[in-house]
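[09:14] KT: can someone run the structure on this one? pasting the chain below
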Amino acid sequence: MITFAPLLVFLVIGFFAWLLFTLAVFALPVFAGVTISLWAFHTGAGALGGIAVALVAGAAIFGVGQLALALVRWTWLRLLVIIFYVAPATVGGYSAKPT
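[09:31] RB: done, structure tokens below
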């Protein structure tokens, strides 16, 4: 059992690193989806309507970001799009670190 412990430690560290990088990629679409889902739920769409609206909104924001990075030629505008996507990931990554 002592021989498997170092391997398990490396696997767990790699898994948590993968989770943080996934958080960095999908932070803005998830945040926007949850926010729009709560808005839809409180305006009377119900639980299923809120989930549907959240999925559509998150996918749309992710797609718009990918499209903007692919089509925009101006460096300053690309930087603005990147900063717009990195800001929630920075907050999420800072909140995930141990104190």
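[09:33] KT: thanks! The chain has two helices and no strands.
[09:34] RB: yep, looked fine to me
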